[in-house]
Amino acid sequence: MINHQSAKQTEAVIKTENVNVYYGNFLAVAGIYLDIAKNQVTAFIGPSGCGKSTLLRCYNRLNDLIPSFKLQGAITYHNQNLYAPEIDPVQVRRRIGMVFQRPNPFPKSIYENIAFGARINGYQGDMDELVEKSLRQAALWDEVKDKLRQSGLALSGGQQQRLCIARTVAIQPDVVLMDEPCSALDPISTLKVEELIHQLKENYTIIIVTHNMQQASRVADYTAFFNVRTTEKGDRQGYLVEYDRTEKIFQNPKEEATQQYVSGRFG
Amino acid sequence: MTDATFNPETLKRNPTSPRTLFSLFMSGVAGLFMTMAIIPLFIILFYLLYKGISALNFQVLVQLPPPPMVEGGGFGNAILGTVIMVAIGTLISLPVGVMAAIYLSEFSRGQLASWTRFATNVLSGVPSIIVGVFAYGVLVLTFKTYSAWAGGFALAILMLPTIVRTTDEALQLVPQDVRQASTGLGANDYQTVLQIVLPAAIPAIITGVTLALARAAGETAPLIFTALFTQFWPNWDKLLAEPTASLAVLVYNFAIVPFKNQQELAWAASFILVLLVLLTSIISRLATSTRKY
Asked: What domains are there in chain B, each with its CATH number?
């Protein structure tokens, strides 16, 4: 079963072509074709172990940190294969930023949390201005403007996650990857982060992994549903079931499995 | 819906049940052994204070050790010698140990890392007198003189395993999340380790270095083979390449002579040695009071 549905009408920033992800000899994610639309929000949904986070981490080469990781196929970003041998993963990550599942601010001041990324990326402009702008973009400025020198770890969970988003937008990436950014947050913080995603869409392309289907339907323009199957050898393997506009996935999906998952009768 | 057979009385505490009594007894045993474990520390501190305080005055801190049968004198040269040699030891072992630990924790994988860790543990188990003989063979025989450098080198080898192990452990306590966040922002390995991981681990590293330093300051055996002892001040003109006094060796020498003045100086020197180590620990604790993780 192969799905090759491109994001129509808008330009594709990232193209995923027949991607297989291996850990050692174990094929963890199989045969993914998926194009990410520019300045749109794309959500990855599916049960645990379906490979959605694994695939997300392929886009900024974060899986390179795992020694047994191997990728077949091609992921192209502006028509450049990200896994070509001459590509520097550090440069990839400067263009494709990431927000993690658990808020993980650096054990530094709020100011330094944001300045760090900009500084290592050779930012020459006014640092104070960049910090303020990034915090404003992350809707955090009003809450922290009087305590920029305090530790980022002293903030609440929701504030920490918005700090992590501010830190990511401060390096002015092109694409922002979000790996279940709200799973550790309370509903009010979740709402703030979702509003933020809506605003960030203006300037960034966003891919968000979520377990929360309401969240996917609220924030995403496109939704990809992944599932997991058991091979003859007994390995669990993730694959893409269906990828389309979010309304289509939630109201009128082509596949039976998608219909069952989004209506909560499965997974 | 209530359970007709449930008796609320069974929820009440029964002070004479075997379980309660056994629990009380075991808590008592644990408390007793805890007391036994810390009693030696307090006895030593009290005894040193009691014996040392009588000989303690300002002049012992600045004067040279007296010849036999002569009253007065002090051990200023031994204090200075100990500080110099511990400083040399730290200057050698700190960069080497921290860099080795960074390699172990951040960049090595599998066999090499586990063998290096094993080797570090073996090194920490090597008796200090053997380390002294080793430093004697390497530096004293080569340069044909006892020196503060040879003493500092021996202390560095003693400090190394403690620094490597505590730094290694401190670095591994820094959450993987934070490394990924840094990598995700486009930091390379060098930027991640130097600007994110290492600063987060600094308090724990300082604790480890203090432990190593405290142990080194009290070592006698390796210094007997390397720095020996002298009645005189450390000689800066000869670049410290002469026998050098230290508190530990002074205590060792003076405690076994039959002269009362020397014996009292040995007590005072022991007290000063413990005080110096204590002071170093407290200062380093204050300087880095907050653990980040």
From this structure: 73-287 (1.10.3720.10)
